[in-house]
Design goal:
Strand content: under 5%
Structural class: mainly alpha
Distance between the termini: 158 Å
Number of strands: 0
Order of helices and strands: HHHHH
Helix content: 40-55%
């Protein structure tokens, strides 16, 4: 039997050749994982591929390990200074108690002599300390000379003013005596602490 004719456009699809497909692999295959130690994307090694740091390398940040710095400020450690201040020895800077006693005599004695004599005899006690102990002890010599030079100057001023201040009710003499007493006491307190005191308004009559 003959097959009846078919309308146009309804041909058998089997009579037509198959449509061409795009070239390439028919199925997508997952990329193979890189081997251990092979470089990863962008040329970086895979995680964990860096060699461990050796003991010769400094810690991160480029800083030396703890304890490698000197003490802050460049100062020596505590306890590195000599005891006894600038003088050394017992008694706050004196070699012995006798030196301290004579230093106090020079300063406090000068103040007391100025008070008792109303000025002119303030130099007596420092002079005694200088003559009695100044040759044996450099510390006593320094204290006695400081007090003696100060008291000599102001004793002379007090002596002169005693004769010219009668009409002025002794006011200048009182001021001079107050200066002698005040600075003599201050110097004595410093000497008690073992610190030399530099008298203001003084002169170096004796060196």
């Amino acid at each position: 039997m003959t097959e009846p004719p078919r309308p146009p456009g309804s041909g058998d699809p089997g009579n037509y050749p198959p449509e061409p497909t795009s070239p390439g692999p028919s199925s997508a295959e997952p990329p193979t994982a890189p081997l251990s130690g092979a470089p990863g994307p962008a040329g970086y090694p895979p995680p964990g591929g860096y060699p461990p740091p050796t003991g010769d390398q400094p810690p991160s940040g480029g800083y030396p390990p703890a304890g490698g710095y000197p003490p802050p400020g460049g100062y020596p450690p505590p306890g590195g200074y000599p005891a006894g201040g600038a003088y050394g020895g017992p008694g706050g800077g004196y070699a012995n108690n006798e030196d301290k006693t004579w230093a106090l005599v020079a300063h406090f004695g000068g103040a007391l002599g100025a008070l008792v004599s109303f000025g002119p005899l303030g130099f007596v006690a420092p002079l005694i300390a200088y003559l009695a102990r100044g040759q044996q002890s450099p510390t006593v010599r320094a204290h006695a000379l400081a007090a003696l030079n100060f008291q000599i100057l102001w004793s002379i001023i007090a002596f002169v003013l005693l004769f010219v201040s009668w009409c002025l009710l002794f006011l200048p003499s009182i001021a001079v005596v107050v200066i002698q007493i005040l600075f003599g006491i201050i110097a004595g307190m410093k000497a008690n602490e073992g610190t030399p005191y530099r008298y203001p308004m003084t002169a170096n009559f004796i060196k």
